[in-house]
Amino acid sequence: MPESDPVTPRGAVAAPDEPAYKALTRHLPEPRFVPLPGYARIDEARMLAQAETFYQTMARRRTTRHFSTDPVPRRLIELAILTAGTAPSGAHRQPWRFVAIDDPTLKARVRAAAEEEELKTYSERMTDEWREALHPLGTDHVKAHLTDAPWLVVLFAEKYGLRPDGSHRKNYYVDESVGIAAGLFVAAIHVMGLVTLTHTPNPMGFLRDALCRGTNEKAVLVMPVGYPRPDAQVPDLARLPLEAIVQWNA
Ligand SMILES: Cc1cc2nc3c(=O)[nH]c(=O)nc-3n(C[C@H](O)[C@H](O)[C@H](O)COP(=O)(O)O)c2cc1C
Predict the structure, then answer these.
(1) Is-above-0.85 flag for pTM?
(2) Along the 250 residues of the chain, how does pLDDT read in single tens digits?
(3) Measuring from each residue's beta carbon to the nearest atom of ligand 1, which residues come in under 6 Å?
(4) Which of 67, 131, 162, 241 is deepest in the core (most CB within 10 A)?
């Protein structure tokens, strides 16, 4: 291919005073910028009050495995997914895909497949160390929440994109990006007054087939969403204090 080919910048020569790497993107359109939208600086007292309120709200979030069967409007699920979709992502690839399920038959199929895998995990695959780590949470292979909750939201990570011609488009920092999106989803669900469970059936391969997703995607989390049952319980856990999770400077 000739060096002047517009999609092959290899060999591009930097102009004087231009860092050499800049020449490598000279064939691409100029990036477009807009003013930072919707930003209004607020005074420190209000910042503190808002930050305190948000923290106190999030500190009340808990994972429960006991869901009510009461229905939840689809718009609330849409809003949680839209919120998740505001996450930052490597090279803005947005490598998250959500499958929202309220079809009882499909939920039952996901539950049956998850329980089959989980039974093998709990009885055969789990190391003693892993079993001991899970013991305080009281979990087992029975996943009633997968059919009790009105919605199951399955989060897939897009490992790589697919161009119309079938070639692969690389995604960047997929795990980190999808993790942040999951965090925003969990926060949105909590702030709207619902509960969720970030559930990782192990292994997760069955979800790709059951939900007709492409081989470029990997299931990451199954999140039942709904109201807690009136008798919902949670394990008695404590969170690490600030000094255990932060270091200020070196
Ligand atoms: C990546 C990830 C995987 C998890 N997998 C499961 C799971 O498979 N089953 C389950 O019951 N809880 C699962 N959890 C929930 C954790 O057990 C729970 O978040 C933890 O015990 C802390 O409790 P909290 O969320 O109430 O603060 C998972 C959480 C995360 C973040």
Answers:
(1) yes
(2) 333 444 556 667 888 888 899 999 999 999 999 999 999 999 999 999 999 999 999 999 999 999 999 999 999 999 999 999 999 999 999 999 999 999 999 999 999 999 999 999 999 999 999 999 999 998 899 999 999 999 999 999 999 999 999 999 999 999 999 999 999 999 999 999 999 999 998 888 889 999 999 999 999 999 999 999 999 999 999 999 999 999 999 9
(3) 62-63, 65, 137, 139, 197-200, 234, 237
(4) 67
Residue with tokens 């919707």: 38
> Within a 10 A sphere around the Cβ of 33, how many other Cβ atoms?
6
Atom index in ligand 1 nearest the CA of residue 65 equals 11
**What stretches of the chain show up as alpha helix (H) in DSSP?**
20-23, 44-59, 74-84, 104-120, 128-134, 145-148, 174-191, 205-210, 242-245
How far, in Å, from the CA of 36 to the mean position of ligand 1? 36
Nearest CA to ligand 1 atom 22: 63
Nearest to 143 by CA among 123, 115, 176: 115
For residues 157 and 181, is the Cβ–Cβ distance under 8 A? no
DSSP string, 7-71: T--TT--PPTTS-HHHHTTTTSPPP-----TT-----HHHHHHHHHHHHHHHHT----S-B----
Angle between helices 74-84 and 174-191 (to 10 degrees): 140
